[in-house]
Amino acid sequence: MDGTGLHNDLTLIILAGGKSSRMGQDKGFLKLGAETFVKTLIEVAKGMTPNILISVAKANEESYRGFGIPMIVDEWNGKGPLGGITSAIRNVKTEWFGLLTVDSPFVTKATLEYLWSAKEYKEAVMYAENQRIHPLVALYHFSTIEKWQMALEKNQLKVTNLVESFDVMKIELPQNRLKELENINTPEEYRAVVGKS
Prior knowledge:
Layout: E1 10-15, E2 31-32, E3 35-36, H1 37-46, E4 51-56, E5 71-73, H2 80-89, E6 96-101, H3 109-117, E7 124-129, E8 132-141, H4 145-153, H5 159-164, E9 168-172, H6 187-194
Parallel strand pairs: 1-4, 1-6, 4-5, 7-9
Antiparallel strand pairs: 2-3, 6-8, 7-8
């Protein structure tokens, strides 16, 4: 951590390359209060580190160009989150990288700081809820990058299966903070969470 309180040895990757087929529109541009989901996450990320990347699909590259954050276009169309993650982590130059996804807009700086404080001597640190892990709000050591690439080359695309093979620190989030990990994938979930009609 430097004098600004930022973690220079961390890169945060915001995953924004999903098809949003269930939502029917790009989830990154849904509003949470006055801000879009992606802008909310960018501000959280800026509170953690100066090193931020946005992973996008070729089809939505133009939409994300205006944020002033380096974009990495998914090189492997149709490979799901693993393709976007692997494309992005090739550009990581820090000891640790973290994943955030635009459909989890309630993540806070405290959510990430708690992971950061627990990361020592492990390949990954993430939240678990009744042993169900949350691999897309998590931190990973640089040493795992080759394993991500190998899984993609073997077409083993389930992120959960891959990260379960890592040496993982699993942290149970208190019940009163589970909302921080909530995913919003459908119009019904969006209306229920943000009170839209």
